[in-house]
Batch of 3 targets.
Target 1
Amino acid sequence: MNGAAMLKMTLSMAIFGSIGFFTGKTGIPAAELVFVRCICATLFLGLCWFISGQHKVEVWRKREVIQTMICGIFLVLNWVFLFKAFEEMSITVAISIYNLAPIFVLILGSLILKDKMTMTSLLAIVVCFLGSILIIGVQNFTSLTDFFGSGFVWALLSALCYAMTMLLGKGITGLSAYAMTFVQTTIGILMLFPFMNFDVFNGLSTSNWLYILGTGLIHTGFVYYLFFDSLRKLSTIVISALVFVDPVVAILLDTIILDFRPSILQSIGILLIFGGIIYTLVKPNKKLVVSN
């Protein structure tokens, strides 16, 4: 087992787990924050890509480039929706729903790729669905107003886009991870630029700017560097286990620093969601690799 790679993967997941806390301190809306994140990631990872020399040996195939660009659209939407969810609900609830992405991969895989849906997969889906109802609160499902105002839709959309990112990324083999992300974040800049309200950056405090730059450089550039540098040195099983460091750190920060206290039903819902996901990931022949 590669100890250095495990340490880098664990550190990347732990850092990303704090992104919800950082997001709330930036003082800017979700779309503008993702825009800054895309700029920082493009510059940071583009530099790493250039220094490594990988850019000289890339294999550019038209189909893979188009697939990477579409994948980038879903990646950016995933970030925007997740940050919108953080604005409307607690980090614990949002991150729990967000981590339903592997379950969506199962559902979409059976619908789009015609993968066989097993009883194990169906059971995991039902368990996670019940967990979602408990974690968001049954009362929020009684009216459309409460349902849409809860932030549940944003978190669910972020998980769905995350799943699409995983599915689309699986078929890309010619491009390096650096090239893929460079293309995706560049697409994010072009995609979000027309919708930017640059007035939101006026009057920000030094603290706000530190959190904004931290989200861009540390939570995106540095985390992606650590993730990509360790990804191909670890087995799928180890990666599938280590990605749970992310939600654990997020939930700990939410409860310890932000004083979130889940109700008994929400706690049961969290356990059901992660129980269903873990049960799916540890089953043989399941090779879902997730990255943020």
Target 2
Amino acid sequence: MTEVAERRKRGQEKTGGLGETVRTVVYAVLIALVVRTFVIEPFNIPSGSMIPTLLVGDYLFVSKFSYGYSKHSFPFSLGLFSGRIFFHSPKRGDVAVFKYPGDQGQGFNRTDYIKRIVGLPGDRIQVTNGVLHINGVAVKRERIGEYAKGGGSYQKGMLYRETMPDGPTYTVLQYSDSGPSDNTPEFLVPANSYFVMGDNRDDSLDSRTRLMLRDISGAPRERDQLGWYVPAENLVGRAEFIFFSHDPSEAGWSEPWKWPVAIRFSRFFRAIH
């Protein structure tokens, strides 16, 4: 074989190897997009509105198939169709990820929220002295312990076990029974919509509050009407389990030498109830 032919052969092998690498990357990306869109998607928790169930720095998987699919199942909420297909209605007590209904438009202006569904279409929801009422009946609430929030703003709260009429049980945190959202008017949940609340009952922007409308530019403005609901179309999926947890108050991502202390190993693979 001549030297020219040998160089040509080596060039073809390099080209073939590069092409195979590109194809592998493309296939991997396509598979990841399909899994993310139709099966399961990772999310992280940036705020304390779901304490004690979810902590800031928790990373969790959300099942996309639990409630069927809408345009919000796709990356950037691409408007491929309206409504939902293969719809399965959420149950009271589900921890759900949804697109905040105050966002106007689509794409990057859509914000992911995670809350607990407490009201189904047609339910009458009211909070009186910190106690959740569904259709005029108080939800069972049992005190099970105390919760202390340290740091610069020390707070002491109470932990309660709350039990839905149809069985689901979970823990909520209450600092007071007389806060701004602890006594509300009665809300009637519209058709094809859901009423949501955070488990951290005194530190959650949820269906008891005023909706913050954001226009295309992202500028917020508060709606006068108290209370808002999550349209069925805005549901993204049901939170299933935590796969990783990192305490940002202990160490930032730029401080790898502190990670062993900051990682919450005890929360790995914990189911979300």
Target 3
Amino acid sequence: MKYDLNLLPVFLALMEERSVTRAAARLGITQPALSNSLNRLRETMRDPLFIRERYGIKPTQLAEEITPTIEAAVAQLDDLVLNQQEFQPASAERLFTLAPNSYVELVAMPALVARTRELAPGIRLRMTAFGNDLAETGVISGTTAMALGRIIDPPDNLVVQHLMDDGLACVVRKDHPEIRDSISRDQYESLKHVNVLPPGRLKAGLFQALGQQNLKREVAVSVTHFLAAPEMLVVTDYCATLPKLICRMLERDSRLKILPAPVDLGTFPVEMAWHVRYRNDPAHIWLRSMIVELARELTSQAR
């Protein structure tokens, strides 16, 4: 019986995304092309595989049953083929999907894009949402090359590497009527605060650090991205507690001033996770080494 091995990654993307539109975007193909591949999958397996629902698609029982086998087969094929290939960055053409949390996307991804453009102009990078669960990133199925951020409770099929640690500092507007060159514990607790709630587990780190120091904070407004916080601060007398590398970027904004936190809030880890099938992939090894080097540079710059 003849069958197309290219259909296997399509099946895994559909299983992960539960949406034809999102799966097509992840694979870098058009929606009609993916729908055509799905029809061929159905003919091959003699099963609908995915049933339309109001907000996407739902796998059939057969689809659920064959997923582990297909994941293992794709991993073995990747190892067999990719390990025999030499990776030449300057001439390579490839798409990598990365899932950085909003912190990593802001502090590290611009440098990665610039370096990739310089060393490997044919490499394309696509960012997808980190989300609240590793499964949402696509890294567990391998459809996403890697997740970058705080990796909590990774499954056995992920390799996790520590990249760096970052701390926390405070930000207020330059002409704040109460805060001069430092902020005391009493001032911190009396101010109202801008709270950043990025996707993933980074938000838990600040809450835990405040709790460990018994430092109280009255949250006046919560935002979903670090870039929203400065604009809230310049029009209020609020305070924000942000990662030091982001504070370092905000030092260029003359409307703001950066201050040490009133107590030691410790550090939080930044990690990189990828599917075991990419452990020996030369292209992935090259990309991971660049990210490790960038993390090292960021750490040295923050000292």
